[in-house]
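User: Could you check the structure of this?
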Amino acid sequence: MADHAREDDDSALFTSSERHEIANENDGNLAARPHRDVAFKRAFATSLAVTILCGLLALSRVSADAHVLTEAETLNKYESCHAANGVGARRRTLLEDGADEDAATALTKARPYVVMAMLGACAMGALALTAFKRHPRFATWSMIYVKIGSCFALSIAFAIERMAFPCILFALFAAFFAYWMHATRDRVELVAKLLGAASTALKDNPHLITTSVFAGLAVIVSSIMFFTCVWGAYMNGSIAPSDYEHYTGGKCYYGEEVVPCCEWQTDSWVGPYVVFALLVWLWSHMIAAEMRTFVIGGSISRWYFAPAGTTAFVGTTREFIGHAFGASFGSLAFGGLVLTGVTILRNLNERLRRESRGFMAILACIVTAVMDCIAEIIETITKFATIQCAITGESLLESGREVTRLLKDNFLSALRVWWLPEMILNMTALFFAIFYGVVVGISVHVGVQVSTGDDDLAHNVGAIVGACAGVSSIVILSFLFSVLLTCIDAVFICYARDKDENMITKPEIVAIYDEVTEKTRAPDVAVAAAQRAQRPPPTARSDPGVVFQTPNAPMMYGRPDGNSLV
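Assistant: Sure, the predicted structure tokens are below.
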């Protein structure tokens, strides 16, 4: 507490003009920034160019009937890969269309319902974001109550359908979340204040949502491009006899099992290219995520360090988009490469945990738990370093070192509450999506059954619409909540820089984050006090009097009577 009091006293030494001067220096943006981490920018550009050029070349070499030769019906026919004399390969075309008329009818019937369900999901996402902007505390508690209510409603619905296991499972989920909400009310209040601070920043920077939407669309378009290249590469090959044992009655057998008589064999270069293209696609996806974090972090920092009373931030988002594609693109490529490695590590951990047996399964759980913790730490530091990079224009490594120092010196204990906003929002999005999908699916099922009288058609249409409603709602809610969480992280880094420089730029925001850091530091203070109480009494004593006197200054430090030396 003494440290905070000293910081508050020191902050009073800065005049208003000096604060604005330091704030502009912290913003570090108006002047042209030097290019950072250029090697990673060049490496990504080269990898992307190689992937696209090879993909275009692969697409140009695809034969007209390659898609027919890779279909299951063609591969099951013995004649597809055996000529009349038993050698060579021969191309065939399908004689009939295998489309399922019932499925086509269900898809046609479900199309308008799917559109309405997706529009409903968008409306709910916009409503949730508006609620957080205007009433953050009410919105936070409402999210928790919605999550608990959704679990109870799903439990009752499964009970009516006499499905015991899901009924009990969702009832346990609801009971657990209700108990957790009651036991951690203080922490939830902190989360509400954090979300309120982030919502204030987002309200003054509305174009961050628009930018994030366009970033998501860019990821979708680039994903289509990458997978088109992968598909074109896979189509470069030929049909050949499969590894079967004998051919009887128009079917091929491997032992007692019926297997395809033919198989599609890709060219030798396809495998390495597909692996390389998927890695570049994952790298691109992570760079897009880094860009969104960078733009949000930079825009929020401009808002945070702006002079008091500033409400217009025209051009801020555009400026940081320019930095993201310009001077700092190499740093973002570096960060994206780090996150790509973290993603691959997590996938390998999951595969190791799933495939291990016996004693190796126990060892795998221990190893993967440690590796998951390391991956989480790297991911968190990379995220904060990207925000720091947006604020200062430094390289990613320099930003990472500075962020690590800030957290280590001042606010490491505050990170204990940082998992709560993400957990509350993501779990709410998940359970609400399940609830929304089930309700929409059942409603459509009943409506189609009443209007057509066809129970099978109603079941198919309800399943399709319910699945699309659930997926669309979780995607939209998770996307909007991720923007809100990034705003929390960005404001936290600005607050950390403020405290590190003994400044109070936004008193209302500093008050919220001070409360978070103080309440999360309280357990550490209690533990330290308990440890001091358990220490044995000191044997060495010191006499009261002067301990140290400053030369040539009227100041000295003394020890009162009875105070111990150690």
